[in-house]
Amino acid sequence: MPAMIIHIVLIGWLYVTVLVAATETSLIAGILTFILYGGIPCCLILYFATSKTRRRYRAHRERLAEQQERRPEA
User: Fold this and answer.
1) Greatest CA separation for the chain
2) Dist. CA 30–CA 17, nearest whole Å
3) Is 46 contained in some domain?
4) Residue 5 — very low, low, confident or very high, per pLDDT cuts 50/70/90?
5) Pick from 58, 36, 40: which is nearest to 48 by CA?
6) How far is 18 from 64, CA to CA, in rounded Å?
7) Residue 24: φ, ψ to 5°
8) Chain-wide mean pLDDT for the chain?
9) Which residues, including other chains, have CB under 8 Å from residue 17's CB and lie 6 or more apart?
10) Per-residue confidence (pLDDT) for residue 2, from 0 to 100
11) Residue numbers of the domain that contains 38
């Protein structure tokens, strides 16, 4: 799934959870609703959705480090 679609879906989900949290009877209940229904799921989705990109970036950094080690000093 393209990154832009994931971001749009997450923004929509956060909007819905803000509205649900705003209808709670107390401030604490609203905050907990937002964190448990909005914050944590969105963080997990972003973490798993970007794992491939993080893996590629780590491999790229390792390749650059190997090239730096192989390069003769002038």
Assistant:
1) 70
2) 9
3) yes
4) confident
5) 40
6) 43
7) -70, 155
8) 90
9) 33, 34, 37, 38
10) 66
11) 8-68
Task: Please answer whether residues 21 and 34 qualify as being in contact, where contact means their C-beta atoms are separated by less than 8 angstroms.
Answer: yes
Question: Which residues, 6 or more positions from 27, have their beta carbon under 8 angstroms from its beta carbon?
Answer: none
Checking if the pLDDT of 18 tops 60, the result is yes
Question: What are the tokens at 51?
Answer: 């794992």
Answer yes or no: are the C-beta atoms of 42 and 13 closer than 8 Å.
yes
What pLDDT is recorded for position 12? 95
Establish if 1 belongs to a structural domain.
no
**CA of residue 45 relative to chain centroid, distance:** 6
Residue 54's φ and ψ, nearest 5 degrees, are: -65, -40
Tokens representing residue 37 in the block: 């229904």
Residue that has been written with the tokens 């997990």 in this structure: 44
Residue 33 neighbours by CB distance under 10 Å: 18
56 domain residue, yes or no: yes
Q: How many domains does the chain have?
A: 1
